[in-house]
Write a structure and sequence with these properties.
The structure holds two protein chains of two kinds.
Chain A (H helix, E strand, L loop, with lengths): L1 H13 L11 E12 L4 E12 L2 E6 L4 E7 L5 E7 L4 E5 L13 H6 L3 H6 L1 E6 L6 E7 L4 E7 L4 E8 L3 E11 L2 H12 L2 E4 L10 H9 L9 E2 L5 E2 L8
Parallel strand pairs in A: 6-12
Antiparallel strand pairs in A: 1-2, 1-11, 2-3, 3-4, 4-5, 5-6, 7-8, 8-9, 9-10, 10-11, 13-14
Chain B lengths: L2 H13 L14 H4 L2 H12 L11 E7 L4 H14 L16 E6 L10 H10 L30 H7 L3 E9 L3 H7 L15 H5 L5 H6 L1 H8 L11 E5 L30 H8 L3 E4 L2 H5 L8 E5 L21 H12 L6 E7 L1 H7 L3 H21 L5 E7 L2 E2 L1 E3 L33 E6 L3 E2 L31 E2 L2 E4 L5 E2 L3 E6 L9 E3 L2 H10 L1 H8 L3
Parallel strand pairs in B: 1-7, 1-8, 2-17, 3-4, 3-7, 4-6, 5-6, 11-14
Antiparallel strand pairs in B: 2-16, 8-16, 9-15, 10-11, 12-13
Helix pairs in contact in B: 4-15, 5-7, 5-16, 6-17, 13-15, 14-15
């Protein structure tokens, strides 16, 4: 399994022209994310496509037809538009509505899916290849998880990430890279035409069927984001309150 | 029994404080007459003598607390009092002291529980209409541009313009949001705030987005009323919603932008620049510094757009990038600009984010915005000539917000219920403590500590139902109250809301009314339609 994934990654990296190495800000990266629970030996798989277009990053979840668009604003804060592709509608979250109200300034986490803090904690074991094909091998042993990361420094993309815990193994595999600028642009321009609503305003729009669904059901949860914080813990939207 | 004995007996009885004894000389005993509740109430009634019989006002100010139901007023009053070191319940918000009060039935023509568009249209035009539409009657089909023509309603602000009065619109929401929009716009859908929000067929059919209607208000009015010689456009506009006035082009971003591209307009028009070009004697501002620099004695017109979307909650205002004025600051500045007109003025002031605090399930934000709203009312009362100015304070609708349980007097309004005679939180049948304030529906519990932005909860999942609050400080700004029914957003409520009146003609505020009566009070007291008609040569 690991060998196949690695070959796939190497294959897609080899397809990148050297000129594209300088296009880290404009690309698409398609990931397959698997989670295997050791007790049940059950594996769940889902897809995520990371799109970058300058100061905007999109996380597309094809399974749920939700695309989260993150924008870096002038003050360094992030703004989120959660696009519901099936409805061609978007819900806007302003900086203060993200991350328990603290806002979010971790642009790199959205941009490359692994926080820079985590990468700084990891140990660089070796580096292979040159230029675009440079691959860096990182590892980290935490008390509750072992993390291995294969990293493409020129593109600032993770190629493979494996988090091994006592009860679960999570793997991210880069399956394809899109460098066609027109295709990348289309991802953003198509969603910019969606009708958007501030989350604040949905309570005043009960006669809009889509928003009424939002009022009645809340936003459609999409499960763990798969992003990892400085401790290697998965970040998701399901923070539990303390009792 | 002789008279002398009777008197002696009465004195004896009074001294012994047996007020209800047979033969007492005074109908009400002295200790009752001297009771502070009694003397304050008597003074209150006496103060109303001044206002009865005054039926005409030159100026009208309509204050609207969006979503400010009666329970919100009560809780805000207590919170403000407790912030001042009082027990709280005895405190009064500024408009609590207004001499006249009535109730308004808020339902829309097609909805038992209303929205701001229909309710504000009723207040501004005297005609109840459907939910979600602005300045048009119930014959409209929401979202159908072709049904607007012939169903437009004239507003109190428009009549004031025709009459030659100065006019102003202030809101802490987007200035294109339903409540402020209902003062100047006609729209088949409250969400048509800019051209990008509209369906193509509506644009092609000639319907204008709400932001454009604001900018072209004077021109549009002149085309509707060619004989209107005193009409000169809205003098003061302040609020949020800059994105609806700017092109979708990063080059037009303001320093206050939070989005990569601040503007939403897809027609390439910069309406702020267009406003400046047609109002060379006006000032366009977008931040606190610009606001502070306005000299109201020299400035003829003000266009302030202080946020890309809604302005900040009052409690969160310090976190704005470029700084924003408070509602009370905007109110004072607006009055100082408007009162230069000898014909008087009409001003609408909305606290738009009381509603948003409730939608997010945050009593703290809803109540602190209500307190600031009351400060704005106080600022108005103190700066205008009350012998010539009618001030009405009301809400458009209520929220499912309750003050419940049996907390003892002075119990922190944001706290857990502590019963009379107890010092520990009471527990419910499930053995857990509970808060005085709560919501029937919504997103439910959230403990965000010292967070001051209610909307911070929107990025988190719904958590309705009972929680163990034993170790939670429910009095912090970031606490969101429990909700019974899980919904993505807490909802409006359908009960009546209060109307408060002060100044000439305020005595018309009484009883239980259709909400549309508010227009008729303003019209009658300021003779808006009559003066507008006269100005048109009728």
């Amino acid at each position: 399994m690991y060998r196949i994934s690695l070959l796939l990654i190497l294959s897609c990296v080899n397809n990148i022209a050297f000129a594209d190495c300088d296009s880290a800000d404009t690309l698409g990266a398609k990931y397959k994310i698997s989670s295997t629970h050791s007790e049940s030996n059950k594996t769940t798989i889902r897809d995520l496509v990371l799109w970058r277009n300058g100061k905007a990053v999109a996380h597309q979840y094809p399974d749920t037809q939700i695309t989260e668009l993150w924008e870096l604003s002038g003050n360094g804060m992030l703004r989120l538009v959660r696009n519901f592709d099936a409805y061609k509608r978007g819900i806007e979250y302003h900086p203060g509505e993200i991350n328990n109200g603290k806002g979010d300034k971790d642009w790199k986490l959205k941009y490359q899916l692994v926080s820079t803090k985590l990468m700084k904690k990891m140990q660089l074991e070796k580096s292979t290849g040159k230029d675009c094909r440079t691959i860096e091998y990182y590892s980290l042993n935490e008390s509750d998880a072992q993390i291995k990361l294969l990293w493409l420094p020129r593109l600032q993309l993770l190629k493979k990430l494996q988090v091994t815990k006592a009860d679960e193994i999570i793997q991210w595999n880069l399956e394809d890279i899109v460098t066609d600028k027109a295709a990348v642009s289309q991802v953003f321009t198509s969603r910019s035409s969606y009708q958007t609503t501030d989350y604040i305003d949905i309570g005043d729009n009960e006669s809009d069927p889509f928003l009424l669904k939002m009022i009645n059901l809340g936003f459609v949860e999409h499960g763990s984001s798969g992003f990892y914080d400085a401790q290697g813990h998965a970040l998701d939207g399901h923070r539990q309150h303390k009792h | 029994m002789s008279k002398k004995i009777l008197i002696a007996s009465a004195v004896s009885l009074a001294i012994s404080t047996s007020a209800f004894a047979v033969g007492a000389a005074k109908p009400i005993p002295d200790y009752q007459l001297d009771n502070p509740w009694f003397t304050a109430g008597k003074a209150n009634v006496s103060a109303k003598d001044y206002f009865s019989g005054k039926t005409k006002a030159k100026n009208v100010i309509l204050f609207v607390g969006d979503g400010m139901g009666v329970s919100t007023v009560t809780a805000a009053r207590i919170l403000e009092g407790q912030m001042k070191g009082m027990l709280g319940e005895e405190n009064n918000l500024s408009f609590d002291l207004f001499p006249f009060t009535g109730l308004a039935k808020t339902y829309n023509v097609d909805a038992q529980t209303p929205d701001s568009a229909g309710t504000m249209t009723a207040m501004m035009t005297g005609v109840k209409t459907d939910v979600g539409v602005i300045g048009v009657d119930e014959d409209i089909v929401r979202g159908d541009c072709s049904t607007v023509a012939g169903n437009e309603l004239v507003t109190a602000l428009e009549l004031s313009e025709l009459a030659g009065k100065s006019t102003g619109v202030i809101s802490t929401a987007r200035i294109t949001h339903a409540t402020p929009a209902a003062t100047y716009a006609k729209s088949a859908d409250r969400n048509w705030e800019d051209i990008s929000d509209m369906p193509t067929d509506a644009v092609n059919a000639g319907c204008k987005d709400i932001a454009l209607q604001l900018i072209e208000f004077e021109a549009d009015m002149k085309s509707r009323y060619p004989g209107a010689k005193k009409l000169n456009g809205i003098e003061v506009v302040m609020g949020g919603g800059r994105r609806h006035f700017l092109p979708k082009d990063v080059a037009f971003n303001s320093p206050d932008a939070v989005s990569e591209i601040e503007g939403d307009r897809t027609d390439g028009r910069d309406l702020t620049a267009e406003w400046e070009s047609v109002n060379p004697n006006g000032v366009y501002v977008y931040d606190q510094a610009g606001f502070d620099a306005i000299n109201p004695n020299k400035t003829k017109r003000v266009f302030g757009l202080f946020n890309e979307s809604h302005m900040q909650y009052e409690a969160d205002r310090h976190n704005d990038i470029a700084g924003e004025p408070s509602l009370s600051e905007m109110t004072s500045k607006a009055i100082d600009v408007l009162d230069n007109n000898k014909r008087g003025y009409f001003l609408m002031v909305e606290s738009g984010r009381i509603d948003h605090g409730h939608h997010a399930g945050s009593a703290y934000n809803a109540l602190t915005d209500t307190i600031e709203f009351a400060k704005a009312v106080k600022a108005a009362v103190e700066s205008v000539d009350m012998s010539k100015t009618l001030i009405l304070v009301t809400a458009d609708h209520s929220h499912v917000f309750t003050i419940a349980g049996y907390p003892k007097r002075g119990n922190p309004i944001l706290g857990k219920v502590v019963s009379v005679g107890s010092d520990v939180p009471a527990t419910a049948a499930d053995g857990l403590p509970y808060t005085t304030l709560g919501y029937t529906n919504g997103r439910g519990f959230r403990d965000l500590g010292n967070e001051t932005d209610a909307d911070a909860s929107y990025g988190l999942p719904i958590d309705a139902g009972r929680m163990d609050l034993t170790s939670v400080d429910t009095e912090t700004s970031g606490f969101h109250q429990e909700a019974l029914i899980p919904l993505g957003s807490e909802t409006h409520a359908g009960e009546d809301i209060a109307i408060y009146g002060k100044g000439p003609g305020a005595h018309y505020v009484s009883g239980t009314n259709e909400q549309s009566v508010i227009f008729h009070i303003m019209d009658r007291v300021a003779r808006l339609a009559k003066k507008a008609g006269a100005a048109l040569g009728n």
